[in-house]
Write a structure and sequence with these properties.
8 strands; alpha/beta; about 15% strand; globular; 15 helices; 2 domains; single chain
């Protein structure tokens, strides 16, 4: 303000607000988060171990995809299950904006299962998405659909039609935090069924794309159609490929048994079960995409993380797959019957098994690797501050965490420095 202006700084701000309201209507108070509206409840995805997944699995794999030239127009088309905080989109969007080869934005297509019946611009998810747009991290075309992604499994549903209209994605992030393979008998609207629909949906894409799957996984909760499918595909490989598959399976399980340790692994808890789950899901994806006549694709397991959510053993699995469509020649309708369906090559299966054996336990990693832990704490604190969570409260929450307590009071000192 100039020296002779009779308005104080506070009056000047109020005057500007009134001018804006006259032109555009009342200001959205949700855009300004006062102390009284700070969020107080912390969730499992606010722990630094989750930030390791965001940074060292999701963001790294996405940056490789972009670096290989498979994302065009400076926009990454991103299907996600973001929740009210949208921390995955904020972190990934920030990483993409800082790239040296030109800024990228996210075009978000989200299923916000945390929104409940709260729809429209006032919902927490929409507020978070509006903030991403304002910060130039997400495009104006980004949208959230309130509801469950399982709805896309229902033929003719609104969710399925919206998915079809959206087209193919560069990245699909099924960060479910629940069980991928824990279905009630006869239930059709399941997360595994939704994954099946997404696999078919992505057949229209002719460039490599990424699939992230984060799921609870424990032998006691492994049931239903999804579980039966994964067990069956592994059993078929044991029977059909014999020693070539069994030897690779033994390297994954560490068990010298006739079936490569599959039976024991499916019944186990912790890391052994997570590895077996990885083999089953990876083999299922490979079998599906390898057997699409005229639209086949190579499937690579690129990252395998596990960590604890409850109990003493890892029970959360974070997987990254890269699906690379092959340059197949189209098959005319008249020739379909004469074309032999290609079988998964044993070398691809062996590669999948080698990657499954490279399981990384994030609990031990974040405990023993100082740089990983420190970076994850700092980045998680930044994300929480952007979402209007009190960092002091988060530090106390971490200190008494029931699974993985951490003392990170130093982050408060850093903030004051």
């Amino acid at each position: 303000m100039s020296e002779g202006n009779p308005l104080s700084a506070r009056d000047a701000v109020s005057e500007v607000d009134r001018e804006i309201e006259d032109a555009y209507g009342p200001l959205d108070d949700a855009a300004v988060q006062p102390q009284s509206r700070r969020r107080r409840e912390f969730a499992p995805w606010h722990h630094p171990v989750k930030q390791v997944v965001r940074a060292r699995q999701w963001a790294e794999q996405i940056e490789r995809l972009i670096g290989d030239g498979h994302v065009t127009r400076g926009v990454l088309r991103y299907l996600t299950l973001p929740g009210a905080d949208m921390m995955d989109a904020r972190y990934i969007g920030g990483r993409l904006r800082s790239r040296g080869d030109g800024p990228f934005k996210l075009e978000v297509f989200g299923f916000d299962r945390s929104a409940g019946d709260t729809d429209g611009p006032g919902s927490p998810g929409e507020e978070a998405l509006a903030a991403l747009r304002q910060d130039q991290l997400a495009t104006m075309e980004s949208k959230l659909r309130v509801g469950q992604i399982e709805e896309i499994a229902v033929d003719g549903s609104v969710a399925q039609r919206q998915l079809q209209d959206a087209g193919a994605f560069d990245v699909i992030n099924l960060d479910a935090c629940s069980h991928l393979c824990c279905d009630a008998p006869g239930e059709a609207r399941t997360l595994f069924a939704a994954l099946q629909k997404l696999m078919v949906h992505q057949l229209q894409r002719r460039d490599p794309w990424l699939l992230f799957v984060t799921t609870r996984a424990a032998a006691g909760d492994f049931r239903g159609h999804g579980a039966d499918t994964l067990k069956s595909i592994v059993k078929q490989n044991i029977e059909h490929d014999g020693p070539a598959f069994i030897d690779g399976l033994r390297a994954v399980t560490g068990l010298d048994q006739q079936d490569g340790g599959a039976s024991a692994a499916w019944a186990a808890d912790g890391e052994l079960f997570l590895k077996m789950f990885t083999v089953g899901l990876g083999k299922h994806l490979l079998h599906f995409f390898n057997n699409q006549i005229g639209r086949s694709a190579r499937v690579d397991l690129t990252s395998v993380f596990g960590y604890r959510v409850s109990g003493d053993e890892p029970d959360m699995l974070a997987l990254a797959f890269r699906v690379s469509p092959r340059d197949d020649q189209p098959v005319t309708a008249a020739r379909v019957a004469a074309v032999a369906v290609p079988q998964p090559e044993i070398e691809e299966i062996k590669r999948m098994l080698r990657r499954a054996a490279c399981f990384r336990n994030l609990d031990s990693g974040i405990e023993t690797m100082t740089e990983v832990r420190t970076t994850a704490i700092r980045e998680q604190a930044e994300l929480l501050a952007a979402a209007n969570y009190p960092i002091e409260g988060w530090v106390e929450w971490l200190k008494t965490h029931n699974v993985r307590p951490m003392d990170c009071a130093w982050i408060l000192q850093d903030a004051q420095a």
